[in-house]
# Entry
Amino acid sequence: MAKKDTINALKRRGVDEESAKKLVKEGDFLLGDVKDASKEELMEYLSEEKAEEVLNQVGKKGKKKSKSKKKKSEEKSEEEESKSKEKIEIDKFEALSETGKELKSLSEKEGYYLPRALIRDIAESVKEHDISEDDYEEVLEMVNERVQNRKVDPKESVGIVGAQSIGEPGTQMTMRTFHHAGVAEIGVTQGLPRMIEIVDARKEPSTPSMEVHLKDEFKDDREEAKDLASRLEITRLKDIADFEINIAETSITIEPDMETLEEENLDIDEIAKDLNKKRNVEGEVTQSDEVINIDVEEGKFSLLYQTVEEAKEAKIKGIKGITRGVIRKDEGEFVIYTEGSNLKDVLKMDKVDIEKTTTNSPVEIYNVLGIEAARKSIIQEAKDTLNEQGLEVDIRHIMLVADIMTNEGELNAIGRHGVSGRKTSVLARAAFEITSQHLLRAAILGEEDQLDGVAENVIVGQPITQGTGAVDVKYTGYPEKEVQKDEE
# Structure
């Protein structure tokens, strides 16, 4: 999943396909890495001209200190204008096969204009079932008939139907925290609280978790899974050592458990060096035999206790944010479920299958892999949450919610701070939350409401412009009948 989505995310930002593939496949770049990369780092895989072009499209541009607001706004408008002029060749995303091209040409000739993804599926099916070219026209006719029958009726209130379809079973959701079957150690939020987290686009879920898959050559090996889980879990010095404070000499003695060090493949010398490098551990760090000593400046007792706390929290190994990893065997392969999440750093680890590994945080997926991957994550997480409760909702309603949250190219919550708060209608915004503030602000700014939506028309007592309300029937009277008189 990861590489393909990263390439797509780069292409959506204007990077050509060849450059995107080089960065992702040869350089193992993620979207966040490209944003943070310097020109020199990109030039290891691209030419100077291409590297500069990628930086302009994706990366952080160098900022000059003395830039006026006017100049900044001019640059911003120029950048937006240039972006609006960019053209993306859709054919470059995934080329059709020869059969697909033939089917596409034939469908356009017949006036069908079927979706590209559907044509690709038809091409695979006709090849699989060995259907002759003479029957292509009949196949396309049948497919087009089914497509037309499944189209939404014009002016159908799909948003209201979707809200009803998700909201009604949502009232049956529990408000408990569930656990993965057979794994009591890893708790994940489910039910209504989890659904709220998803549609609110929370930066961090209440119980962040990852599903880490191993590469094909390691997925059947329990020892490899144990080794990876050990390297994922964050280990702090307080977990493997005892601390003793000598107030008289203002010193700290740290005695690591040597058996644990051996099990975790850690070295006491490396631990001492790491402590010496930490800025917050103030004092002289020395190591002798199986003991580490930290001598703090004489008389500074508050600094002594502060240094102890900093030393206890010192990270010895592991990935930041991941506190625990549990191994389970799913469908014949070992999978690691984590407590805590750090997708960016986990995907960089060897032995990790970056195409299958995922997290339960759509926001984190958006930051690492881009908006398209985030959309898929929202759909999957919402679907799994409903299925856990034994509730069935047509996936099209969930897809509609995901589309609304991601259609601007960034992740927006469904709420007053996101989609609902950005409506153009004053009355629609006021009807949702904080009514007085919306009305007051609209009055100050002199906003007008065109009454185009549902909420605003209901408020003023007019028929809504959806469904039957979208059609006006006017009576103009019958035309006068011309009576021809028989000529005598």
